[in-house]
Amino acid sequence: MTYRLWWTVGYTCTSERQFLAAKPRLQPAVYEMLDDALRRAAQVGRAGGVAWLIEGDDKTRLERGSIETTLRKRAQELEMQAQPETDRRGRPPRRE
């Protein structure tokens, strides 16, 4: 299963109409899991870009508004999944 994320920096496309016109020229970022695509969409937003669309092979289709709503609801969960494992003292595990 793959999910494709289309995003731009804020000044490239400022409206949905501009994005749709530019979409054939854009290269999507491809992820194997929806959560990974959502994590990247959150990073794009924090960096000043716009995550316009996530499409999946399973017919998943999240447009800008749906992506933003999902990120508001699941932001803490997605960030917690991305945290590296640590021991009781907050240190990363030792590599042998």
Which labels suit this protein?
96 residues; single chain; alpha+beta; 3 helices; four-stranded antiparallel sheet; 4 strands
Would you mind describing this structure in some detail?
This protein is an alpha+beta fold. 41% of the residues lie in helices and 22% in strands. It has helices at 16-22, 34-46, 64-82, and strands at 3-9, 29-31, 49-56, 61-63. The chain has a four-stranded antiparallel β-sheet. Helix 2 packs across helix 3 (64-82). It is elongated.
Helical segment count: 3
Q: What is the mean predicted local confidence, pLDDT?
A: 86
Indicate how many domains the architecture comprises: 1
Q: In what order do the strands lie side by side in the largest sheet?
A: 2-1-3-4
Main β sheet profile:
4 strands, antiparallel
Structural class: alpha+beta
Strand-residue proportion: 15-25%
Q: Rough shape? A: elongated
The sequence of SSEs as H and E is EHEHEEH
What share of residues is helical?
40-55%
Uncertain runs are none
Give the distance, in angstroms, between the N- and C-terminal Cα atoms.
Answer: 34 Å
Radius of gyration: 16 Å
Assembly status: single chain
Number of strands: 4
What does this entry show, briefly?
The chain has 96 residues and is of the alpha+beta class. The chain has helices at residues 16-22, 34-46, 64-82, and strands at 3-9, 29-31, 49-56, 61-63. The chain is built from three helices and four strands, in the order βαβαββα.
Give the SSE layout.
Blueprint: E1 3-9, H1 16-22, E2 29-31, H2 34-46, E3 49-56, E4 61-63, H3 64-82
Helix pairs in contact: 2-3
